[in-house]
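Let us practice reading a record.
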Amino acid sequence: MKLFPHAHATHPDWRTALSLALAQLDGQRRQEAYGLTPTLGWIYLTDHHGAHAEEILAHLQRWAPGVSWVGSVGVGVMGSGVEYFDEPALSLMLGDLPRESFAVFSGVQPLPPGFAAHTALVHADGATPELDELLGEMADRTASGYLFGGLAASRTRSLQIADRVLEGGLSGVAFGGTVEMLSRVTQGCQPVGPARRITAVERNVIATLDGEPALDCLLRDLQLDPDEPRKALPRLQATLVGLSDASTTAIARPGQFGADTRVRHLIGIDPHARGIAIADEPEVGMQLAFCARHAEAARRDLVRICSEIREELEPEQLPPSTVQALAAAGSGGGLDPATPPAHRIRGAVYVSCSGRGGPHFGAPSAELQLLRHALGDVPLVGFFAAGEIAHHHLYGYTGVLTVFTSA
């Protein structure tokens, strides 16, 4: 089994940053563990280099003829154990998936007729009209109904890459059922009250929850005195809402949202009608729980999804040599390429909210260091997005981790 070559670099000059990253890839590809013939490449760049995206892509296409490239722009990018937040940087990864097992798509390059998509990595422009519907339609075209990815995040030029540089709409790469992967969503917010049922709503204004005025439920869950608005205002400004479909589990365990919960902003209250307004248009019957960002809960949940992936990939009975390799990974040493377990991680794509990263976890690269410590030192590429895509939904304040594996 070959690991995916991966590289990252930072420099104000895009040519220098790209040269540094390509030198890393060239060095890895001379090693037996990474010596593969690439067919698919991932490229993520910070918005500092967005103006030169066409030149960067053209250089990559000359450097690796025949490789398909997908990616996006973010306010930050990441590699294994490191993040580059609000600085000029780029991150690359190469895979050798069989060409018939994937298909790059965009608004100008639809999926080829007859390609049976099982899942898809999707990059999108958050300003695209009816984006939720487009994501749902794309999910319906896959056998699993599962998408993963994120929204381009840029203070200048919002763009995606799908064998060309694109703006607007959505693009990415669809994978057939033979591509082995696992994907998980990690939440970054913690509920501060119970899950309630939406019983009356008009557009984005929720009138009642469980038959009670929504504002009354909000104040009660936050333990706020409605007669002291000045004291209540700071808490209200820091409060978010977690939405879940009627049939899903909103709160998986005490203090922890389920994977299908989507966090949205609380954007207003109506003291007269006793309603609340949120940055979404929910439906009657959906579940809602008030919540707040919580760094420690985010750390725990990131470790949880890594543990779930490790448990699913590792066989119940491991030989002693593999146990030693896994012990090394648990201490941050990574898996030894010479001692593969029954399933191995070849590479990973991680999309995290632009509101997470080092600033939220307390130190530069803290989120990526935590991920590496929990999962092992696996090849990884990704970016900090303006919204995260998983299943057929758009999330916020989450991370979406997808690993490519080999039997």
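A brief commentary: Residues 6-187+297-406 form one domain.
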